Amino acid sequence: MAITSRLIAKFNSYYADKPVLTIMMTNAVLGGIADTVAQTLTSIRQRSIRKPGGVQKDDFLAIEIHDLDKRNPWPANDLMPASKKLPPPFDFERLTRFMSYGFIMSPLQFQWFSFLSRAFPITKHSGTVPAMKRVAMDQLIFAPIGLACFFTFMTVAEGGGRKAVTRKFQDVYLPALKANFIIWPAVQILNFRVIPLQFQIPFVSTVGIAWTAYLSLTNSADEV
């Protein structure tokens, strides 16, 4: 608890001095953690597939991931023969892309959350209704745009052109948006209703660790 308190105090100090830069650095770090988790889960998934005999009963995490494979089979041409050189190499370029995206998007997120805070102020006498209005605005306006920015940035950063971006949208945009509408409204209600403004973007990015891992697994891809 003492360490957590010191980290929060440090964050508040940096935020008071340079709020946007503080959020940018925090988002970059959390984006890196998110992709590391996603790559680790993908590695476990590949290893379980390539084991002789497939998933074992004692591989509890692999079993959970294997359940996703039944709905989203791994492409046959992406499977590798059994090898002692497992798990696959860590993709540092992909890690850099995720950290860069978190860093670049932070100023826009900062302005958006600040706008919502001003437009729908939460007071002691009125909390739930303004929070619901913030969530509605966030999900109907920012979420679709944010996902579009995410897939476009990642595809272009990987070297893809217009056709690759179009294909990415055709394959994963709508499923990801539907999943967003299932998961994020509840998260954002908690965020807007309880979390102080300076912690709202880091809170979203922290929940985004699980979100990024989800996208990585359900889309059956090496990149989200």
Properties at a glance:
mainly alpha; 224 residues; single chain
What's the short version?
With 224 residues, the protein is an all-alpha fold. The chain is 77% helix and 0% strand.
Q: Could you report the average pLDDT, rounded to the nearest whole number?
A: 80
E-strand count: 0
What composes the largest sheet?
A: none
What percent of residues are in strands?
under 5%
**Large-scale geometry:** globular
> Which parts are unreliable, with pLDDT below 50 for 5 consecutive residues or more?
60-65, 80-85
The helical percent reads: over 70%
Radius of gyration: 19 Å
SSE arrangement, N to C: HHHHHHH
Structural class: mainly alpha
Distance between the termini: 34 Å
* Tally of individual helices: 7
Verbal overview:
The protein is mainly α. Helix content is 77%, strand content 0%. It is built from seven helices and no strands. The chain has helices at residues 2-17, 19-50, 60-71, 92-119, 128-157, 162-194, 197-218. Helix 4 (92-119) packs antiparallel against helix 5 (128-157). The two termini are 34 Å apart. Mean pLDDT is 80; it is low at 60-65 and 80-85.
